[in-house]
Amino acid sequence: MKLLGRKNTGNSDDGSSAAEIPPLESQQVGKGKPTPKRREAEAKRRGPVAPAPLTAKEARARKKAARGDKTERKQAANERREDAADRRARMLAGEEKYLLPRDKGPARRLARDIVDSRRHLLGLFMPLALFLILTMFAAAALQSLITLVMLVMFVFMAAEGVLLGRRVNNRVHERYPDSTESGLKLGWYVFVRASQLRRMRAPKPQVEIGASV
User: Fold this and answer.
1) pLDDT tens-digit profile of 23-51?
2) What's the pLDDT at 135?
3) Distance (Å, rounded) from C-alpha 208 to C-alpha 113?
4) What is the dihedral of CA 176, 179, 181, 183, to 10 degrees?
5) Are 45 and 39 in contact (CB under 8 A)?
6) 55, 76, 122, 149: which has the fewest C-beta neighbours closer than 10 Å?
7) Residue 180: CB partners within 8 Å, gap ≥ 6?
8) Rounded Cα–Cα distance for residues 49 and 62 (Å)
9) In this predicted model, what pLDDT tens digit does every residue of 125-175 receive, in sequence order?
């Protein structure tokens, strides 16, 4: 039953409602299906996943197959050893790319060259330390005399180390005024290198004894 003075708005209401509700197809994104997760996409690219091994023997067999045969493993080990030997040779030769972090930088290279261009009393540190250990089995009187001589030598070595560290620091900051090298760290670096036998230093000395640096 229709009321007088009132229009039938049923059709208009239905039309506006239909216009406000978008069709289901318009709400779908892309190809009409939800975007797959990253893990699912990677799994599809890799292919089907093999089931988990049922026994320990099967697990060992899979692990052995993944490593390859004995010849391949031996070849890979040889390649790793050759690569390590090549990197060490380049490090000993002083190539910047292969140096340890403690040896990198032009300031450290200059410090090494200054140390390697001279003979130092500090170079006797390791032989004297070994000799001091051997004298522990000597007679008491002789041991006391040797210990006194060793202490005097160590005092002279320490003094030389301090002077050498100052000289190297002055040369480094003179040639590289923007260097951020700490004086104490660089001095200790020089002391340790000078106290090593020349043939045992790494990187190997790049200058001859008596060369002008």
Assistant:
1) 444 444 445 555 556 656 555 555 555 56
2) 80
3) 9
4) 60
5) no
6) 55
7) none
8) 13
9) 888 888 888 887 777 778 788 888 888 988 999 999 999 999 999 999 999
Task: Calculate the alpha carbon distances from 92 to 99, 106, 109, 170 in Å.
Answer: 8, 16, 13, 26
Structure tokens that stand for 55 in this block = 């026994």
How far apart are the C-alpha atoms of 88 and 83, rounded to whole Å?
9
Burial class of residue 86 (count of CB atoms within 10 Å of its CB; 0-12, 13-18, 19+): exposed
Q: What is residue 167's three-state secondary structure?
A: helix
Task: Answer positive or negative: Cα dihedral of 162, 164, 167, 171.
Answer: negative
DSSP state of 83: H
SS3 63: helix
Alpha-carbon span 123 to 190, nearest angstrom:
12
Tokens, residue 69: 């045969």
Find the farthest-apart pair of alpha carbons in the chain and give their distance in angstroms, rounded: 137
Query: Which single residue is written with the structure tokens 């059709």?
Result: 11
